[in-house]
Amino acid sequence: MKYNLIVFGTRPELLKLIPVILEIRKRNLDNRFKILCTNQHQELIADLLKLFSIEPDISLPISNYKRSISETLSDIIKEFQSYVELNDSYIHYVIAQGDTTSCLAAAMVAFLNKKQFAHIEAGLRTFDNDNPFPEEYFRKIVSLSTNIHFTPTYTAKQNLLKENVQASKVIHTGNTIVDLMNMLKIRQYQCKNESIKRFLKTTNNIIITCHRRENQNGNFDILIESIKELATTNPELNFIWLSHLNPFVNSKTKNESLRKISNITVVQPVSIFDMVELYKSTRLIITDSGGIQEEAVSFSVPTIVIRDKTERPESIEVENSELVGNSPEKLKAAFYKFLSRKKKVLKNPFGDGNAASIIIDFFVQQNYDSNVDKIDFHKISADLSHEKF
Known about the structure:
Layout: E1 3-8, H1 11-26, E2 33-37, H2 42-51, E3 58-59, H3 69-86, E4 91-97, H4 101-112, E5 116-120, H5 135-144, E6 148-151, H6 154-162, E7 170-172, H7 176-185, E8 205-208, H8 218-233, E9 238-242, H9 247-252, H10 256-259, E10 264-267, H11 272-280, E11 282-287, H12 290-297, E12 303-305, H13 313-317, E13 321-323, H14 328-340, H15 355-364, H16 377-384
Parallel strand pairs: 1-2, 1-4, 2-3, 4-5, 5-6, 6-7, 8-9, 8-11, 9-10, 11-12, 12-13
Helix pairs in contact: 1-7, 1-15, 3-4, 4-5
C-alpha cells in the first residue's frame, strides 16, 4: 500500500507538524503516513519528539554542525534520494513544511523523481532574496516543485495566485502553529526550568531572541547595546534573552557587560511548554523570529521585529508587530509605544486552529492507487479552503 512521507529536520518544522501528526493519530491513519527525520537539529528536536511520543520511521545521518548550507543541502539530497530510490513504488506524496534546507531538499528530490509534493505553509514572501536569507530563495524554489500548496494566510494564497499557481492547487488552511498554541494554552503544566521559573510569577517580562543569518554581524552588537540601555532605564522589567545553540549567537550572548546588568538574564533555549508559560507572563517580545511573530498573536503579546522585512505582514496589519530593522531609535520608540498600550485580545490572522484537520482531510480524499492527474483538485480545493481569516 502507498503511503505519504512527512519530512522534517528542524525544530520550527516539527513544531508546526505536531498538530498534523496528532491528527493522523486521532483518525487512526498511521498506516497511510510515514515520518522521515533529516536530523540537522537533532539536539533541539529531541525533547519535542519525546514529549509528543513521536518516533520517526526513518532517520537520516545528517548534521549541520559547523557546516555550510550547501554541504547540509547536498547531504540531505543524497541521503533522501537513496531512500526514495529504494521505496519508489510506495511513496504517494512527499510532505514538508516551511522554508528550511530539509524542506528544499525534499521538494527537489520529489520533483526530480516525479513524486507529488505537498507544501505546508506555502506562499510566504518578502520579495527580497536577501531578507530573510536563504529562506526567501528556498520558498520560491519549493513552490516551483509543489503540487499542492497549503497556505497559512489569505495573503500567502494571493501571493501564489499572482505567481500563476493554479487556484485548484491551493488549499487555504491557516497556520498549524495556531492549532498547537490552542492545544498548549489550555494544558496544565508545571514548569521545571529553574532559569525561568521565577519570572512566571510576574507580568513584567520582556523576551529577546535573535538568531537569523542577516543579524549575525554588527547588527547583533547594536542590539546588545540597545537592550543594555533599555534594561538600565527600566529596572522594574525583567529582560529574558533566549540564547541559541548557533555558535555565533551563543558566543555573543556570553557578553560580560550584558550579563552584569541585574535585570537581564540570558537563558538557553527552552521547551515549547516553557515558552507557552513565558508568553502568558510577557509584556513584549523583541525578536527576528518568524515563528514567534505568529505564536505571540495567540497570546496578544506584541512583537518588535528586528528585521527590515517580514513574510508575516498579517501581524503588522493587526498592530501586534512593528518592523524596526537594526535602528536603535526605532526599537526604543516601538518599545515604549507597546509598553504603554493596554493589552487587547486580537482576532488571530494566522487561522482558527483547524489547519491540521483541513490538511489531513485532503489526504483522506486521495485514492492512493489512482492516477494523480485524474483527481479533481479544483473540487477538493473549493471544499476544503477556509476563507474566514
